[in-house]
Design goal:
alpha/beta; seven-stranded mixed sheet; 5 helices; 31% strand; globular
Length: 240
């Protein structure tokens, strides 16, 4: 399992960083979590085999996690006909808005992009990969999720955006996962480091950091944590 960071910024683009998006690639398929970056452009520039893409999962409907979805979903019908994948949205209103946009631009609904409204629990499974959604309190009265991906004997958890109490699932403190991608924009870096003292993930990968000075704080604290902490840039690819 490999994870390529298409975008690692926080609520807006930063110099050298797109908004949040990740490609999780396995031998048998690719899975995108969030689409804040210009996903289609990123895939083309990295020479990715577009027919490998199996599914896209959105953590929540803030623009920094969704604005690249329009270019990704409008291309398969007219141009890249090898693309055939499913998209999972956390709420109906957001999914309907995307569908209306595609109809407004004359997309004829070729059937190679299928949209779904998902809820917590297992949301996707194919022969090789399972994806489960865990709710967070980031939006308080609207749905937001993190995702656990299991493939090739590995477990990867991606937090999505969290609330001020850093409400990632308790199972990360009870069982080992191979990697944990976590944000650090909605709480102080010191608070995240304190919470991670109890985390059993083998690797903690920090993205979506704001303000930028929190990177320095996290790097200074990394040596005191029981897990390895990493800070990828856009375009970085990590093997899990």
């Amino acid at each position: 399992m490999k994870i390529t960071f298409l975008g690692t910024s926080h609520g807006v683009q930063a110099p050298g960083r797109y908004c949040q998006s990740m490609l999780v690639d396995t031998e048998n398929g690719g899975y995108i979590i969030d689409a804040g970056a210009p996903v289609m452009d990123c895939l083309l520039r990295m020479g990715y085999s577009l027919g490998k893409l199996k599914a896209v999962f959105i953590t929540h409907m803030h623009s920094d996690h969704i604005e690249g979805i329009f270019g990704l979903l409008s291309r398969p019908c007219g141009y890249f006909k090898e693309m055939d994948f499913d998209v999972y949205f956390p709420e109906t209103e957001g999914m309907d808005s995307v569908q209306r946009f595609l109809r407004a631009e004359g997309n004829d609904g070729c059937g190679r992009v299928r949209m779904h409204r998902m809820e917590q629990g297992e949301v996707y499974r194919d022969r090789w990969t399972a994806v489960s959604a865990y709710p967070t309190g980031h939006l308080k009265n609207r749905p937001a999720y993190g995702y656990l991906l299991e493939a090739e004997g590995k477990k990867l958890y991606i937090s999505g955006d969290l609330d001020r109490n850093i409400d990632y699932p308790r199972f990360l403190e009870e069982e080992a996962v191979d990697a944990f991608v976590v944000e650090c924009a909605h709480f102080p870096a010191e608070n995240l480091a304190a919470r991670l003292q109890h985390c059993k993930a083998r690797r903690v990968i920090v993205i979506h950091v704001w303000p930028e000075g929190q990177y320095d704080v996290l790097r200074a604290l990394a040596g005191m944590l029981p897990c390895k902490m990493e800070f990828p840039d856009d375009g970085d690819c990590l093997t899990i």
